[in-house]
Design a protein that fits this description.
5 helices; alpha/beta; 5-stranded mixed β-sheet; 3-stranded antiparallel β-sheet
């Protein structure tokens, strides 16, 4: 298995896959960020080496230490609603720059990554610990219902932005859900 970690979340892919901690890669940090003024990007890129028509993009968000921040970021107009699609766009722009850069190391690993027929899957992995209800009764049930509806609204909002116009498959993963791909994750 090959691995890429972001703080306390590790993504694992089979040995016959390519994986990159994209937003920490030398090319992204030294070339893309300098040109584009520090734009944010998706955390992990990976793909099967034998499958030229596939790219998996993974954005990791860890809210285990701040449940209130999760609730704030999930609100309409919150950080996740605007930032996540922007990170995807920035990443695709960076990949285009990389493909045109002539950087042999970069282009070797990502040959065909921007092929128009490529299937792109974009995952947002939200890691959080549900706040233990301090108030028993109706308010705590409403809080859980509110989280569920906010997660659903986020998922639908991003899907509308990506799937209909750009043919990018979006999946929102929450704790204990497995991706529908050959990669996996562990949380420490």
């Amino acid at each position: 298995m090959k691995h890429a970690s972001d703080d306390k979340i590790t993504i694992s892919v089979p040995d016959d896959w390519w994986i990159s901690k994209w937003d920490k890669s030398e090319f992204y940090r030294n070339d893309v960020c300098q040109m584009a003024g520090g734009q944010k990007a998706v955390d992990i890129l990976c793909r099967p080496l034998d499958e030229a028509g596939k790219l998996v993009m993974i954005e990791l968000k860890d809210y285990r230490t701040d449940y209130n921040k999760l609730m704030e970021d999930l609100k309409p107009g919150g950080r996740l609603v605007s930032e996540v699609p922007q990170k995807l766009l920035n990443t695709l722009s960076g990949l285009l720059l990389g493909a045109r850069s002539g950087n042999n190391h970069f282009t070797h690993e990502t040959t065909g990554i921007l092929n128009i027929d490529r299937k792109i899957s974009f995952y947002l992995l939200l890691v959080y610990t549900e706040q233990s209800p301090k108030i028993i009764g109706t308010r705590s049930r409403l809080n859980v219902q509110s989280l569920d509806s906010m997660l659903e609204n986020l998922k639908q909002h991003i899907r509308r932005k990506l799937s209909s116009k750009f043919n990018i498959r979006f999946t929102l993963l929450i704790p204990d859900q497995a991706p529908a791909e050959a990669w996996s994750y562990t949380i420490t």
